[in-house]
Amino acid sequence: MEEQGKGFFKVYDYQELEKQELMSLYIGKNADYYLRKWSKTSAPEKAFSWNWAAFFVFAFWVGYRQMYVYLALLVGIMLAGDVAYIFVLGWEPDIRITIVISLLMGAFGNALYYRHIRRKLDQLKESGLESEEIRRRAAAEGGPNWRGILATCLMLFLYNIILGYLTSLLNGVIHT
């Protein structure tokens, strides 16, 4: 938050205060963690900022934080990489793609989450709702959600079914 002056004469940027309040409402649990990380840079949507949860369990972290478009994109990248391994290189899928994604998510997951929240809050603000309704919706629609974990499990289950089918095709082609 930007402030100017000293003591009693401090002048606060109230738009920044409102933005932080809405972000805090939207984030819910662990809002202080994310706001602290993002306050360390002038461009949090691009900044390197390590997140251990995003590193170790990136797909589940993305689902838990309700970033479903990113979840689909990540699983799609994993599947496309595995398809390239199978049909272009003739290899069995391995963990290299997952390791790269894991490292990138650990390094830039907070920036991705910042972008997600800003987009959601901008949509709420542009909806023409009163500010109290925007606050209520930010708190209700945001935050961590266990349904996201279930969505992640479903997507990874489908990913494994598709990958198993593709691997069996590769094995059938090689052994005939």
Report what the structure shows.
This protein is an all-alpha fold. It has one domain (3-174). 73% of the residues lie in helices and 2% in strands. It is built from 8 helices and 2 strands; from the N terminus they run ββαααααααα. The chain has helices at 14-27, 31-39, 52-56, 58-64, 68-89, 96-126, 131-141, 146-174, and strands spanning 3-4, 11-12. Strands 1-2 form a two-stranded antiparallel sheet. A hairpin with a 6-residue loop joins strand 1 (3-4) and strand 2 (11-12). Helix 1 packs parallel to helix 7 (131-141), helix 4 runs antiparallel to helix 8 and helix 5 packs parallel to helix 8. The longest helix has 31 residues, at 96-126. It is elongated, with a radius of gyration of 21 Å. The protein starts with a strand and ends with a helix.
List keywords for this structure.
two-stranded antiparallel sheet; elongated; 8 helices; 176 residues; mainly alpha
Q: What is the overall shape?
A: elongated
Low-pLDDT residue intervals, each spanning 5 or more residues: 1-5, 7-12
How would a crystallographer describe the biggest sheet? 2 strands, antiparallel
Distance from first to last alpha carbon = 66 Å
In N-to-C order, the SSE pattern is: EEHHHHHHHH
Overall number of domains: 1
Main sheet: which strands, in order across?
A: 1-2
User: pLDDT average, as an integer?
Assistant: 87
Content of β-strand:
under 5%
Structural class designation = mainly alpha
Number of helices: 8
Helix content: over 70%
Overall radius of gyration: 21 Å
Number of strands: 2
Pfam families: DUF2628
Keywords: Membrane, Transmembrane, Transmembrane helix
InterPro entries: DUF2628
Protein name: DUF2628 domain-containing protein
